[in-house]
Amino acid sequence: MTMKPNTTHLSALAALLLLLAALPAWADGTLTHLSGAVSVQKVDGRVLPGAAGVKVSVGDTVITGAGGYVRVEMTDGGEMVLRPDSQLRVESYKFVEAKPVEDNFIFSMLKGGLRTVTGLIGKRGNQDAYELKTQTATIGIRGTRYDIRVCQGNCGALKDGTYLAVRFGAMQVTNPQGRLTVAAGQVVYAPAGLRPVLLPRDPGIGFTPPTVIPKLDEKKKQADPAAANTPNQPRPATNGAGPANQATLVVVEKAGILSSSQQRATTASTAPTQGTPAPDDSGNSTIRSNNVAPILQTEPGASCYIQ
Length: 307
Description:
Blueprint (H helix, E strand, L loop, with lengths): L6 H16 L6 E7 L2 E4 L5 E3 L5 E2 L4 E4 L4 E6 L4 E4 L3 E9 L9 E14 L12 E4 L4 E4 L3 E7 L9 E8 L1 E6 L2 E6 L3 E4 L6 E3 L18 H6 L1 H4 L20 E2 L9 H10 L35 E2 L1
Parallel strand pairs: 9-10
Antiparallel strand pairs: 1-4, 1-6, 2-3, 2-5, 5-8, 6-7, 7-9, 8-9, 9-12, 10-11, 11-14, 12-13, 13-16, 14-15, 16-17, 18-19
């Protein structure tokens, strides 16, 4: 005896599958504040106009146009603000509060730049779970606050490549030519075909969003007034020594960021100091480096000097 399929059950199953396929992916981030031209290109190619409350999921690309700014809040508590003419794509993301070993956040800065405060991913469980990619470098984050700018013939006098300014925490910048560990208060430049090098100062990575975009961590400060009134503590020297062991690196001339005279003037104006002051909201500040051990990994044939 041959049993006939239950057409009612098959129809119900087909309807359920269609419904699941139509549902949006689990949201990993949310646009909270924006100004100017902003959009989100979904993984299926659809482009959604930017608006507060629009969700961002794996495979999506957040885009800002000329004069556009947007603040994105991730489910792990991380926050980021994109500058104008930027494109950021979420490659992978997983955050389950009860499963820190499964944390994962990989995203690509295709164009432009951002400022961010990282969330729980990378600060618990797997420390290698947070990774940022650009055309010229891969950046591993160890719980930090930083600015990034990707230049592709659109940064004025700045050479093409990836620029990063670490405000707090640390990061590791890697490309096929080498690897560099970058501490708080340092700025790194990663050009195509050359290993990453440290710069003596911020060449214009930071930016100031309009007032409609809250400062990073502003919501947390409002939730905890005591934290908002706590002054920033200077970062202690990591070498355990006084000024005699402190130094400022002058960027290699081969990178072409500053002229020789500008390098000498910059070095002379940045006297060694204990710790690194936090920059203002523009992100611009004179960079002082306390530990020069990893700095001397420069491209063969380049010239540098330490003061």
